[in-house]
Amino acid sequence: MSADPPSPGAGLDPHRIAEIIVSTQGGGRRGSGYRVSDGAVLTAAHVVADAVEVRVRCDADRPGQWSAPAAVAWHDSRTDLAVLTLEPPAQATAGLAPTRFGRVPDDRPDVIRVHAAGFPLWKRRRGPDGKTFRELHQADGTVAVLSNLRGGTLELTVAPAGADPDPGRSPWEGMSGAVVWSGSRVIGVVAEHHRPEGAGRLTAVRLDHALRRLDDEQRSGLTRLLALAAPARLDLVTAHEPEAEGRQWTRVVGVPVAHGIELFKNRTRERDAISAQLSDPAVRMVTLTGRRGIGKSALAAKVMDLLDRGQWPGSARGPLPSGFVNLSTRTSGISLERIYFDCARLLGTESQDHLRQVWNTTSAEHDRLDALFTAMGDRLVIILLDNLEDILDDDGTIADPGFAVFIDCLFRAPRATPRLLVTSQLPVRLPPELRRFAAQIELSKGLEDTEAVALLRELDHDGTLGMADLSDDELLRAAVHVHGVPRALELLVGALADDTVLMPSLRDVLRDFTRRQEVVEDLAQDRYARLDEPARAVLRVLAALRTPMTQPQIEDVLRGIDSGLRVAPVLISLVRTHLVSVDRIRRTFSLHPLDSDLVLAQLPDHGPFRRQELERSIASWYAQQATPHSTWRTPEDLEAQRRQFDHLVRAEDHDGAAQVLNGISAWLVWHGSVLAAVSMHLAVDGHIRDERIRVAHTVAFGHARLSAGPMEQAVDLFTQAAQLAEHLDDRAAHQSALFGLGDAHRQLGDLDAAVGPFTRAAALAREIGDRDGEVHTLLSLSLNHSYRGDGDSALTGAERLAELARADGDPLTAARSGNARTIALLTLGRWREAADAGAETVRAYRAANSLEAIAYAQNAQGLALIALGEPGRAVTILLDARRAASQMQNPRAEGVCLLDLAWAYWCEGSHEECVATAERARTMLQIAGAGQSAAAGSLADAARTLPQNPTAAAAALDRAAAALDGNPEVIAPDWLADQARALRQEP
Q1: pLDDT 10s digits, 397-440
Q2: CA distance 910 to 409
């Protein structure tokens, strides 16, 4: 019995959701669709491309399940839309209500709630009979209507895929063809998932834009099948009533720098000044300066606390912040990487995943930060940077290069978010052009009289220290004695609480201290001198750790130094006497920075608490906390190794530190933390005694410079490493260094200089039996020959790879030999052979179950077809190449494929498609930092001016040709120049 049909206009009907099952000559695929009428199913064109047989199934494994063969009645690969027709069986619901179609605005910003239902790969399940099936998934989300406007698509923001079962395929594979609903109207069809955009973003065909791009005959066929009465006047869909999502988004990241925040006193004047500056959109950074102990951190923490509670700290008002990030050089550290990832944590899982992907695939810090600021949108975020003086030079100049990049990008960004609240003993020295975006507030005086007196009384809240018996005048004299400095007042009261035998009065404690600027340090030193050895041991560990720790962690560290020490009672005493701060929510203990510096300065010269021994003990503890390589996903997963490295450097054990770094450097470089790796290498460079550790360090340092630059330094490092490895007869290190040297020369554009190192590296790999190294090096050498224009030598390298593939029977080596051969044939202009070799290489990579270079092979095949005068076939191939590049998460590869695709569209006269595709190419190439981005932009300009202004188009083509470097994997500059000449000759 069939289900009752829904009423007209009811929106998505689950009984009409279709699973598309496609058979092709090469295998099969799954997709999604929707029955728009009794006998028609709307889906995506690429789902049914090259189909030999298509079946449509509805209500799978449910009452009323049915399936039927279907025919592709209409399809268009450019818009990626298709309509299937079928004869529904008797059990299928008949008399379906017409599907309603709509459009979203494209002339103003808006956010529309949407949903789609389909059968993605990540919902693959195994039934009781052992067979696999795909469960239905409803994806709910939003569309920001101006996103992807240039490409004429919709960007769907949905909950991220719940799993990633196959890294070689998109988890959303199979969702293609699902129709996108807004309310009761269909506005698009899911078409793609770009991995670099994160697991929570899908791209959909925009129905109204697709209709406009079709010619009259195609449009007529589609509107007939969809029963569209007036395709030019689709109903406009607007946003539903917005929800208060800001409250859901707001959160705090990082440990508050809350030294005594619960005892904070007014500081009314300073809070007014902070409020006025921080609420000003033109101000990007507010810095609180003053000497140690004056209360900078407490004031900053109080401001953050008030804002988090929905209250501006002073009389000035502004929009309340949506998020807060707390960072300190004394806890988490302050760096570009830390700021980036902590801000990403504010934005929720979807944006966090996307930004992690951007970090991993984008090398330019400016592009990473642009992505971060874009993700933040117009929401106000406040970042607190505490104790910034630790990363400043003596004159206040920013010493950390990554943080300097962050400041430069932040101050020049068009948005007014995020804003920085900084504490520092030194004013931050900024370039003159950036100073107008910064404000400085100096804390030169202690607390006001009444505030100081109130603080003293609160520090003796239970009256056991006799403060309640003293008059305000007596307390005021004590406060004046220490200049009203908050930390000095805490130390005074701590001295009273510590001596329970002689029970000194406040006057007794003050008698030994004169009125001078160093009163805080003087008090702190006196307090430290009175401690017993167990208390000093705990303080030494906390000071050396430089980050808040729980009691079990402190006990664990001390167990390796003094196993008999009872930590709990010592911590209780230190907290009671205000020498240690406690965060009761996180259950962590920490030292005030002033006290930490004092303790470290007074470490003994001998014994287990000697600086080097203490640092080594802590490094050993962090080594035990390190997670294995297989679990690393983000830079945060290497936190234990990075802290172990820092402590070993402080222990002056540079060999040990270098060994730790050698184990993580490549991972950091490949996952975007290049500047961090470079900084760590610089910390040990020149200090390593063991030559074998030094050669491994130098090779790793060279690879870091290969990514971060300058490239000339990478050449120097690989040269040093090669010489040292040859001296040590370490042939594996020698091979790695030579390969890196060749790669560095190649990236510098000195292709001739790269030949020698690559050739020697291949020979060494062969001698030591490193087959993977030999194959990789031969491939690089062959491609380098192609880029030099030496196609014959490139073919020789490809043939050597083919010999290795035949000898080993390795399908991946066979695919790589095909890759090298295809590019060599392109270089030689042997177009038909190149096209055939490209197709064969694609099949070889698939046989090897590898996506490594499918996009490059298809791209080469498409280029050859363009040269053969077959742009239509080239478009089809290059569309597949672009999809494969997206799955590779390689912006440069995707950008190159898009650029070549844009030229294929030009060659077949599809100038509107050329514009949209070239613009997308420029975006991807800019993300990758590739020089061809300018060529893509100029090609878009050329296509945009046709047919009205062929002269302007010719000029733009000349600019595009000039921006290309002759790389055989990209459209040839001569092709564009020839077309420019032809345009100028037109009447």
Answers
A1: 998 888 998 998 898 887 667 999 999 988 898 888 888 889 99
A2: 38
Element (H, E) at 191: strand 185-192
Using alpha carbons only, how large is the chain's radius of gyration in Å? 33
Structure tokens at 708: 């971060």
pLDDT tens per residue across span 965-976: 888 999 999 999
What is the C-alpha to C-alpha distance for residues 835 and 159, in angstroms, rounded to an integer? 41
Q: How many residues does the chain have?
A: 987
Strands 419-424 and 549-550: unpaired
b/e for 128-150, b at 16 or more Cβ within 10 A?
eeeeeebebbebebbbbbbbbee
Give the phi and the psi of residue 293 in degrees, each rounded to 5: 85, 0
Reference 778, options 815, 816, 747; nearest CA is: 816
Angle between helices 791-808 and 771-788 (to 10 degrees): 160
**Residue 2 carries which DSSP code?**
P
CB atoms within 10 A of CB 710: 10
Express each pLDDT in 673-686 by its tens digit.
888 899 899 999 99
Strand ranges in 772-823 using DSSP code E only, listed in sequence order: none
Other beta carbons within 10 angstroms of residue 418's beta carbon come to 25
Structure tokens at 556: 């664990």
Query: What's the rounded mean pLDDT across residues 856-877?
Result: 94
Spatial distance between the Cα atoms of 227 and 68, rounded to a whole number of angstroms: 22
* Angstrom distances, CA of residue 117 to CA of 111, 133, 138, 586, 927: 20, 16, 4, 42, 32
- In this model, does residue 477 exceed pLDDT 80? no
> What dihedral do alpha carbons 863, 869, 871, 873 form, nearest 10°?
-90
Mean pLDDT throughout 143-164? 83
Tens-digit pLDDT profile for residues 328-376: 887 778 999 999 999 998 887 778 888 888 887 776 788 788 889 888 8
Nearest partner of 197 among 360, 20, 381, 66, judged by Cα: 360
* d(C-alpha 799, C-alpha 570), whole Å: 73
Q: How far apart are CA 517 and CA 480, in angstroms?
A: 12
Q: What is the pTM of this model?
A: 0.63
In order, the DSSP letters of 377-445 are TT--EEEEEE-GGGGB-TTSBB--HHHHHHHHHHHH-SS--SEEEEEESSPPB--GGGGGGEEEEE--S
CB 7 within 8 A of CB 99: no
Quote the CA–CA distance of 426 and 397 in Å, as a whole number: 10
Phi, psi at residue 673, to the nearest 5°?
-95, 55
Tokens of 504: 């000194």
Enter the tokens of residue 922. Answer: 């420029």
Give which of 704, 742, 708, 738 is closest to 720, Cα–Cα: 738
Predicted local distance difference test score (pLDDT) of residue 63: 74
Q: What is the C-alpha separation between 171 and 193, in angstroms, rounded?
A: 9
Per-residue pLDDT at 323: 87
Q: Both tokens of residue 189?
A: 């069809």
Q: Is the backbone peptide bond immediately before 427 cis, with ω within 30 degrees of 0?
A: no
- What residues contact 944, with CB distance under 8 A and at least 6 apart? 911, 915
3-state secondary structure of 617: helix
3-class secondary-structure state, position 25: coil
Quickly list H helices, 626-770.
639-650, 654-670, 674-684, 691-708, 711-728, 731-747, 751-767
**pLDDT at residue 10 above 60?**
no
What residue spans of 285-400 are helical by DSSP H?
296-308, 336-346, 348-361, 365-376
Which residue intervals of 119-215 are DSSP H helices? Answer: 207-213
583: amino acid identity, one letter: D
Report the distance separating Cα 784 and Cα 791, nearest Å: 10
**3: pLDDT confidence band, cut at 50, 70 and 90?**
very low
For residue 513, the SS3 value is: coil
Q: Is 420 helix (H, G, I), strand (E, B) or coil?
A: strand
Q: What confidence category does residue 464 fall into, taking pLDDT thresholds of 50, 70 and 90?
A: low
